[in-house]
From TrEMBL:
Pfam families from the UniProt entry: Catalase
Gene3D superfamilies: Catalase core domain
Full protein name: Catalase
Keyword Metal-binding among record annotations: yes
Lineage start: Eukaryota, Metazoa, Chordata, Craniata, Vertebrata
Gene Ontology molecular function: catalase activity; heme binding; metal ion binding
Signal peptide per UniProt: none
Organism: Cynoglossus semilaevis
Amino acid sequence: DFWSLRPESLHQVSFLFSDRGIPDGHRHMNGYGSHTFKLVNANGDCVYCKFHFKTDQGIKNLSVEEAEKLASTNPDYSISDLFNAISNGNFPSWTFYIQVMTFEQAERFQFNPFDLTKVWPHKDYPLIPVGKIVLNRNPSNYFAEVEQMAFDPSNMPRGIEPSPDKMLQGR
């Protein structure tokens, strides 16, 4: 079976079958970057990092029954919940954190730090708060601002570069 033959999937399946369950919309879920990136400062100093986005609204979940009902009656529930919250001035936000690892730490790490199926231990690489992401307006032109958006992993802002992460390089 899939899970027993692919132990790298254990972390994801643990979330799936945990009490965390099915998120009650986008506002009530965290976001985790899969890939490791390289951060470069103005002096050229480099470190590796992982990105984390923790919801400020709190984790909230749906029961299986609620999720089944919404799937059949309102499949766009999560999108409309987000849109309506923003329209009502209830701007959802996420605290943005990074985990940082030096090149030397990466060389001595217990597993490949660029393996996107692995989690860096928080006790060794604590979450460092960087800022907030706040959604404070809905798109005024959905086609131009959403439908035409292209997520290109190779288009990175200055100071963020690809790491030796093979999956990232392949995209």
